[in-house]
Design a protein that fits this description.
disordered N terminus
Length: 234
């Protein structure tokens, strides 16, 4: 009965009605929605929200650290952001073939001379891509791995910690993020990262429930300061 109710609900969502030239209403059914579950649609929304939030963080980081896109010869902040949007087809040249955790870690490496914002955000964005199996749409037979989603959420936590605490040999932060000055505290970066973490943790819980696996083994928070693997997990 439950699946019958779900199917009926999906059918309603899949139907669209419009008024024809003859003055009569005509209904059409988009069959792709019949192949989606509630979890599939939650996954699509969750992924889009996380990616959108990370792109907003990237824009904020570039506003506070304009030297980063300039040092690699890009024409503007928008060109640097477009490079992140095109991550599926090409990588920033200075990163070579690095993606995921190795790319993000470069942002806090003393010897790295490339665009640190690009390294961090390209790494985090490709982690999210890996956690969602490089898909933007999901259907009944598509599977997700709760550990990938969980690790991805913890990596957002690691990024927040590193932005606040990692310093170069001169004692300066590698990237300017949250501002704490006499004019007040600006913690917008922490809020955006916190939102991404919450969405990823929620999705991990939903996937674990759908897969019939317990979630207690994921209850420990990672505070090692090291980015966890995502794309390497099976």
């Amino acid at each position: 009965m439950r699946w019958l109710a779900v199917l009926l609900a999906l059918t309603v969502v899949a139907c669209s009605t419009r008024l024809g030239k003859d003055g009569r209403s005509h209904s059409t059914i988009d069959l792709k929605y019949l192949a989606k579950t509630e979890v599939d649609r939650i996954a699509e929304i969750d992924r889009a929200e996380v990616v959108g939030g990370l792109m907003l963080i990237a824009e904020k980081l570039y506003k506070r650290n304009p030297r980063e896109w300039k040092k690699v010869g890009l024409a503007s902040r928008e060109a640097a952001l477009e490079q992140l949007r095109m991550r599926h087809t090409r990588s920033p040249p200075e990163l070579g073939a690095l993606r995921d955790a190795p790319a993000a870690a470069l942002a806090f490496s003393e010897t790295y001379t490339g665009d640190r914002v690009a390294a961090l955000m390209f790494g985090l964005l490709t982690m999210v891509d890996s956690a969602f199996e490089h898909k933007e749409e999901f259907y009944i037979l598509d599977g997700l791995n709760e550990m990938k989603l969980f690790n991805c959420a913890r990596n957002m936590e690691v990024a927040v910690w590193k932005l606040a605490n990692d310093r170069n040999p001169a004692g300066e932060p590698y990237l300017l993020a949250n501002a704490i000055d006499p004019g007040g505290r600006n913690l917008s970066f922490e809020r955006e990262f916190g939102r991404a973490m919450g969405l990823l943790d929620l999705m991990a819980q939903v996937v674990a429930d759908r897969n019939g696996r317990g979630f207690s083994r994921l209850s420990q928070t990672v505070v090692s300061g090291i980015f966890l693997p995502v794309g390497l997990l099976k």
